[in-house]
Amino acid sequence: MQKQIFCKLLYILMMTLWTVSMVDIIIKNEKPGSILHGTEDQLLFLECILDGVNTGETIIWIRNGEIVSEGRHGYALYSFIPTKKDHLSEFSCEMHDTLKGNIKEKVITLDIKYKPMIDFNLTEESFFIKGETKTLCCSSDSNPSSATMWLKNLKVAEVVHYKTNVCLTLMNISDSDSGKYSCLAENEVGFSEQEINLNVLYPPVFVEEHKIIQFGKLGEHMKIKVIAHTISSIECCHIEGENRRQKPPDIEIIHKNTTPLVPDTDITTKELEITFSFTVLQTSDFQKYKITVCNHDGNSSCIVELKPMKTEFETPHALDFDVNLLSLLTIILLVAVMVFVFLTRKRNTRHNASRVTEGITEFADGFPIPLNHAPEKDMRNVKRGGETSYSHVWC
């Protein structure tokens, strides 16, 4: 009898072990390759199911050696909101027997989709020297791959590339390269944007507002003024004349205003008025001067000539030419008028002489008198019967 009972118990045990060995673990939504897909910031469910006889044993979810969820009756559930860091992490579902240890397990790998993460090879505020060549690189970490592009001041500076690293090369950097540069990356999950401000540093720039030739009066106070633009602070400023004047004039630098170099950024340029004051102008002060201004990034120079003012307002060369031309035309016109008057008077004189000659000829025809007596005679007109006769009265 005892032998029969023992045999039945042994049979039950053997059947149980055989049944357990036939149990299969199923993970819901598992893809080929033991992959489970998810998306960052969206709730993800990990469901482990025993496909077979329900033995009532414990089923657990394990991550990095730690139990994160526990279930019974052939079912275990673990839910959480994944992030980029959970991508490619592993979870293990185990059917656990407290007496015999682990009986069966299955491991899955998470494939988490996440929007691009952007990184630059430069700091957010970068300074370049004028004339340099620099490369801006934007790297994008995303799953799946993202389309990446460069923008400068909201305009496309580099076409779209489906790769993790997109670089923009700036050659022979100039003032126009200053601005706000943005890197945009986008995939099916979302998009990311990151900006850097690029400042191009250059020496001071003289503007055309100042006059190359300036005028002053001998013995009076005089100021030479020039205008310059700069990004960084002025570090030196001096003036040098052709004759190497021993006592330099007083120098004053006035900050006129600040202008944004690039809209919607902190990049600005300063407008400076630089004044060189002469207390009393001397003859030796009238010459050409080389004005040099420098900052941290270099120096610039301009030439200004100081001339004596002969009149209240110095007549520009162009105006002198116009006045001389007008004077010449006036003289030519006057000469032409004088010649015309002279010729007219000469012609009138000849005409009058011709008329006198004709009158004398007519008189001689009516009264033939010797020419040598004509000056001694007085001619009078006498009217006789309606006719005009000539009588001669001797003095």
UniProtKB/TrEMBL annotation:
Keywords tagged on the record: Disulfide bond, Glycoprotein, Immunoglobulin domain, Lectin, Membrane, Transmembrane, Transmembrane helix
Membrane topology: Single-pass type I membrane protein
PROSITE patterns: IG_LIKE
TM stretches of this protein: 9-27, 325-343
Gene Ontology CC terms: cell-cell junction; plasma membrane
Database matches in SMART domains: IG (SM00409), IGc2 (SM00408)
CDD domains given in the database record: Ig
Subcellular location: Membrane
Ig-like domain ranges (all copies): 46-109, 116-199
GO MF terms held by the record: carbohydrate binding; cell adhesion molecule binding
GO biological process: cell-cell adhesion
Coiled coil ranges: none
Database matches in InterPro entries: Cell_adhesion_signaling, Ig-like_dom, Ig-like_dom_sf, Ig-like_fold, Ig_sub, Ig_sub2
Highest taxon of source: Eukaryota
The protein's name: Sialic acid binding Ig-like lectin 10
